[in-house]
Amino acid sequence: MEQHSPVVYNLALRLMKDPQEAEEVLQETFISAFRALPRFEGRSRLGTWLYRIAYNAALMRLRKRPAPTESLDEPVTSENGDQMPRQLVDWGSTPDDLLLKRELRTVLHAALDTLPATLRSVFVLRDIEGLSTAETAEVLSLTETNVKVRLHRARVALRERLTGYFAASQTVQGIGGK
């Protein structure tokens, strides 16, 4: 625990962005590891195994967090202490914008699903989850060079798969058409 606690805590702190939550993840990690120790096969280093447990524990905690809310009925206090009614601006998208966003999300997910698992996992950890190259390498038991190569390949493959969609949407919008 003494050897791996700082690394596990730092990961948890980066993911949770709260020292108390990070400590909870740290505790959960070592409790889970202790319980699963008989099943540890040694195919990866102990540190990597703990890192994966911590990553999963943090993700589970993040999924359980309630979405932040703000009361629309509460007045807003100005800088001079006056209370004013909340003024709401409609930042909503038009139905066309919503449809395009939904369509783009569907196209992106479909393109991501076509990637081989080796490329998809690196892309998700680096570009979607925001892990560093070193962290991604550790989670996936790869070298940093392998992570960089796979990430480049994933990005190139996604660019190729999405080029047709974006070219078609620009033509439809009159950007690339005659």
Would you write up a description of this structure?
- The protein has 178 residues and is mainly alpha-helical.
- It is 66% helix and 2% strand.
- The protein has seven helices and two strands, in the order αααββαααα.
- It has a two-stranded antiparallel sheet.
- The longest helix has 29 residues, at 144-172.
- The mean pLDDT is 83.
Share of β-strand residues: under 5%
Uncertain parts = none
Note the run of SSEs as H and E.
HHHEEHHHH
- The number of distinct helices, counting runs of at least 4 residues, comes to 7
Instruction: State the total count of DSSP E strands.
Output: 2
The value of Rg in angstroms is: 22 Å
Give the N-terminus to C-terminus distance in angstroms: 66 Å
Mean pLDDT: 83
What share of residues is helical? Answer: 55-70%
For the largest beta-sheet, the strand count, sense and barrel status come to: 2 strands, antiparallel
Strand order of the largest sheet: 1-2
User: Shape, please?
Assistant: flat
Structural class: mainly alpha
